[in-house]
Design a protein that fits this description.
Blueprint: E1 2-7, H1 35-49, E2 53-59, H2 68-78, E3 85-88, E4 97-102, E5 107-111, E6 133-135, E7 144-146, E8 153-159, E9 164-171, H3 183-214, E10 218-223, H4 234-237, H5 241-246, H6 259-265, E11 276-280, E12 285-289, E13 292-296, H7 298-301, E14 306-309, H8 316-319, H9 322-331, E15 337-340
Helix pairs in contact: 1-9
């Protein structure tokens, strides 16, 4: 089975108010890319991936006028994809939903959130992801309240083979200091955002440990907006959100595993894995980053999954296929990350 995560930049902008595809020559929300070209590129990328399930980050927004499910299924039908059914969890107010597009012949899925709506007592399950979490962010003896602006999508999955497993789709808070008007405010907002992101990682890690304790096969995947060397504040906090969710320094039986994370956070190499590519206008060049991950529990790691980042330049097959290479560059500023695993 091939399971992937893909952050599609402003997927919502490719649909009209009635939920119809906008296959035209008007500009998309991507720089210098038309809506028609972005949709065609996405069709090529999804077809090439040929995944059984894709966790879509920044999926089209959900509203009474146009549902995420209908829009994604319309996209799948237009490009004749096997992943023709969509699942949405808790909707959010950012126009960037987290949704699963999947092949119903290969697996059955349902939204299955865990926890309840209140901060639990010690020893009780962690709160539901559409609720609140209390933690001392500033280490000042005062409890702060944290929320996910994009609550993770918790899925109970049943493969056609009979294998039962769970998935959690994630879009972590950005650390970027959006709205800053000067260096001091930029530093303050960046540090505040990192604190909030680490709190979300701790919350998610609690849920991971609950599943591992229950013996659940688990895949945690999505855009974590975090990775090695992304900003100057990493050393200030000691650990990244990725290391927290993985359980980097914890006993092996409670760790999640991601091959790309191991390469990036382990021994430093001359060549690093990257899953996103952004243009920095002030420097006149592109910046690569590892932001997207597919983490698996120890029992699933034992099955020998194979990781792949569909990078247009770093993946030999993508690079040697001009149509796919150009489609990956046109479709989004992120590239799909997939695992092939015998489920």
């Amino acid at each position: 089975m091939r399971i992937a995560t893909y952050n599609v930049e402003w997927f919502s902008s490719l649909f009209g108010r009635d939920g119809r595809l906008l296959e035209d020559r008007e500009w998309s929300s991507r720089h210098d890319v038309t809506r028609g070209d972005q949709l065609a590129a996405l069709g090529i990328v999804f077809t090439a991936m040929d995944a059984d399930a894709v966790m879509i980050v920044e999926a089209p927004d959900n509203s009474p006028r146009h549902t995420t499910k209908a829009q994604l299924e319309r996209f799948a039908a237009r490009y004749k994809l096997r992943t023709r059914k969509a699942l949405l969890g808790f909707e959010n107010e950012t126009q960037q939903e987290i949704a699963l597009l999947y092949d119903p012949d290969k697996l059955t899925v349902r939204h299955d959130p865990k926890g309840d709506g209140a901060q639990p007592l010690p020893g009780q399950p962690s709160p539901r992801f559409d609720s609140t979490y209390r933690i001392d962010l500033n280490i000042d003896g005062t409890m702060d309240t944290v929320q996910f602006n994009k609550p993770p999508l918790e899925i109970a999955a049943h493969a056609a083979s009979g294998r039962v497993f769970r998935m959690i789709g994630v879009h972590m808070k950005s650390k970027a200091p959006h709205g800053a008007t000067g260096p001091e405010q930029e530093r303050r907002i960046a540090i505040e955002n990192r604190r909030k992101q680490l709190a979300q990682a701790i919350w998610l890690r609690e849920r991971v440990l609950e599943h591992l304790k229950a013996g659940d096969g688990l895949i945690v995947l999505g855009d974590f907006n975090d990775g090695p060397g992304l900003d100057e504040y990493e050393k200030l906090f000691g650990r990244s959100g990725i290391e927290i969710v993985l359980g980097w320094d914890e006993p092996r039986e409670t760790r999640l595993y991601d091959q790309n994370a191991r390469l990036a956070f382990g021994k430093k190499l001359a060549v690093m894995p990257y899953s996103a590519r952004f243009y920095l206008a002030e420097h006149g060049r592109f910046f690569n980053a590892l932001l997207d991950y597919v983490m698996v529990s120890p029992d699933l790691r034992a099955l020998g999954p194979k990781w792949r980042i569909w990078h247009p330049f770093d993946d030999p097959s993508c690079y040697s296929t001009p149509e796919l290479r150009e489609a990956l560059l046109t479709a989004s500023d992120h590239f799909p990350v997939s695992i092939d695993i015998p489920l």
